[in-house]
Amino acid sequence: MDYLTGVQPKETLEISELMEQTVQGSIVKVNGAVHTIRDMGTVAFVILRKREGLLQCVYEEGTADFDLKEIQEAATIEVEGVLEANEKAPNGIEVRMEKLRILSEPADEMMPLAISKWKLNTSLEAKLNYRSISLRNIRERAKFRIQEGLTRAFRDFLYSQGFTEIHTPKIGAKGAEGGANIFKLEYFHRPAVLAQSPQFYKQMMVGVFDRVFETAPVFRAEKHNTKRHLNEYTSLDFEMGYIDGFEDIMAMETGFLQYAMELLDKEYAKELKILGVTLPKVDQIPAVPFKEIKELVAEKYGHKMRNPFDLEPEEEVLIGRYAKEEWDSDFVFVTHYPSKKRPFYAMDDPEDTRYTLSFDLLFRGLEITTGGQRIHDYKMLTEKIAARGMSEEGMEQYLATFKHGMPPHGGLGIGLERLTMQLIGEDNVRETTLFPRDLSRLEP
Predict the structure, then answer these.
(1) Contact (Cβ atoms closer than 8 angstroms) between residue 345 and residue 199
(2) How many other C-beta atoms lie within 10 A of the C-beta of residue 22?
(3) What angle do CA 299, 300, 305 make, to 5 degrees?
(4) How do residues 231-271 score in pLDDT, each as one tens digit?
(5) Dist CA 64 CA 80 (whole Å)
(6) What distance in Å separates the CA atoms of residue 201 and residue 350, rounded to the nearest whole number?
(7) CA distance 426 to 443
């Protein structure tokens, strides 16, 4: 009988381990996928794709004990050879190949996409149809490393602020946001819905842990077919209790963004460079009331307001432009949204109940966050439900939480794919979604 005692060290080395080798000319063993082969005649460059980037291997006739023809693009191989420095090679190192072991070979000789090109010169549709292949491209892959950094920063920062991570159901009896944008399904002969957000659950858990967060998918049955909408996306949610006002929520998000940009700058510099990303300044973010910013934008840019209760996409773009020109900020909090356009649980502004103690965060002219203070008083909550002509059916457990005391609280939800899209300068949210789900796409 064998015992497992933990992670076993490997003979094969990763790029970072190769770069730490102090003795040039040492024999090393590496593995990876063949990204591309550049045959120069008696010498060939075999570029391996590994999790940390690209590694250059050099094939020379007479030195290697195998034939170059044995290697195919997209094969996975293990190589043994001599480690050498080369300033022109990726990461400044290369391996002079001596021995080869084929781990797997492709069944198709032709790749559907030229993934070894610096930039995939193909349509978004083609990239999505061959998603698992297109993501092997170095630039495409870098987008999702950046996205990983944002998610990691969200978790790490909130842990540092005393938040507890939770995981809530995605199948429920009733949608948290209401409205018609709900995916309905049958759940063992009972009607059910896919979660529009974890709103009810994260509020309930504030009564348990004070501060909670979740990173998880949410579902919106919106019949949009735009560059900014998805029917399933990843929401970065948090909810926090014992707040003095909704400004505490905005301050916490500002802290997260500051932490995230520092983390990206420190640990994702390679990906930022690949994508040509300049990180935005987040030392301070302006906050301006909804009614005021609409008037400022209308006056400066001659924009005619058509919807007094919401922001149109064109207005979001103009607000982003205004924030950059007037305050040199890529971000702007738009506060005090009209109560008519906010869910029933949003706290109305006691000074003017036509508005709420809520906000959106716009990043370069696109809404990436919605948040605010919630109603924590049971009587006030049920009165607002009744005033809106809503039914309490399906919300009994949620409402029961407030019968037994809840602290002043609030929270937000950030669209991860939108945040990534704006950060790296893409113009379609599908570019920053691993496997998008929209009106027309259920595969891959």
Answers:
(1) yes
(2) 5
(3) 45
(4) 999 999 999 999 999 999 999 999 999 999 999 999 999 99
(5) 10
(6) 26
(7) 22
